[in-house]
């Protein structure tokens, strides 16, 4: 069974995907980390995010990136990731890794932007997790402050809106709700409420009870 979880930045899709993986005992892949690994590689060799050729070359470095490297979660790397993810060649270079993970006999949970639309269009259950830009900016700010950083809410909101526009507006695999995905707006939900709602929606799709 594959569960696809898509949504915009800081909507809570990763939190939900990890909780679903625990609940249904499935392995989880955060596909944003692949794009972040390309971005970090590019950044470290001084490559130009405006060059599709250099971004494609950076894809060769993904396997060498330590998945626990804190720089992967930095704002600059997230912003470069959102730029280089628009290149069709970069997306193609990362496709097999994601499909291979999704094809595990155990099943899998993947979260990203195009899981339900492109990577696993026949996923058994699909969620499109969203929240208002203002709520997402608040969450991202709290995350940044929690890591010891500083930022202004207005700047974080500008970045969130720019990321939304790039992710939704690109020609290659844009961020979009799959026609057969369930919409989950977490704007007014706590983490526990959002996770419980996600488990209920997936359980309905797969014909199981939400208790397991
Ligand atoms: N329902 C919620 N209520 C309050 N905070 C939440 C909620 N869901 C997630 N968060 C918090 O918001 C932040 C972003 O959540 P998360 O990383 O799950 O989002 P994401 O959509 O996966 O982000 P990204 O696109 O950057 O990978 C985290 O600090 C998380 O703990
Ligand atoms: N399936 C995906 C996942 C991510 N991206 C791009 O990567 C950027 C960083 O992702 P996070 O989820 O870690 O914030 C994101 O802004 C997307 O541009 C993608 O295109 N497809």
Automatic annotation (TrEMBL):
Binding site for ATP: 7-15
Subcellular location: Cytoplasm
Family to which the UniProt record says this protein belongs: Belongs to the cytidylate kinase family. Type 1 subfamily.
One Gene Ontology molecular-function label: dCMP kinase activity
EC number: 2.7.4.25
GO biological process: pyrimidine nucleotide metabolic process
Superkingdom: Bacteria
CDD domains per the UniProt record, alphabetical: CMPK
Any single Gene Ontology cellular-component annotation: cytoplasm
Organism whose genome encodes this protein: Sphingomonas xanthus
Protein name listed in UniProt: Cytidylate kinase
Matching HAMAP family: Cytidyl_kinase_type1
Principal location class: cytoplasm
Gene this chain is encoded by: cmk
Nucleotide-binding keyword on record: yes
Sequence ranges assigned to domain Cytidylate kinase in this UniProt record: 3-203
Enzyme class per UniProt: transferase
Catalytic activity: CMP + ATP = CDP + ADP; dCMP + ATP = dCDP + ADP
This protein's UniProt keywords: ATP-binding, Cytoplasm, Kinase, Nucleotide-binding, Transferase
């Amino acid at each position: 069974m594959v569960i696809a979880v898509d949504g915009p930045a800081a909507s809570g899709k990763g939190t939900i995907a990890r909780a679903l993986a625990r609940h249904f005992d499935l392995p989880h892949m955060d596909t944003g980390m692949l794009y972040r690994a390309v971005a970090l590689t590019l950044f470290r060799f001084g490559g130009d995010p405006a060059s599709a050729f250099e971004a494609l070359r950076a894809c060769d470095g993904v396997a060498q990136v330590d998945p626990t490297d804190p720089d992967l979660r930095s704002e600059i790397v997230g912003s470069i990731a959102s730029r280089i993810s628009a290149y069709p060649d970069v997306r193609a270079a990362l496709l097999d890794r994601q499909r291979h993970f999704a094809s595990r006999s155990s099943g899998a949970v993947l979260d990203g932007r195009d899981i339900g639309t492109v990577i696993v269009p026949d996923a058994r259950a699909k969620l499109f997790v969203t929240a208002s830009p203002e709520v997402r900016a608040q969450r991202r700010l709290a995350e940044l402050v929690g890591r010891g950083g500083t930022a202004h809410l207005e700047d974080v909101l500008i970045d969130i809106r720019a990321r939304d526009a790039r992710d939704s507006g690109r020609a290659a695999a844009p961020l979009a709700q799959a026609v057969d995905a369930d919409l989950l707006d977490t704007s007014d939900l706590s983490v526990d409420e959002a996770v419980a709602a996600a488990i209920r929606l997936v359980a309905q799709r797969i014909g199981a009870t939400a208790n397991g």
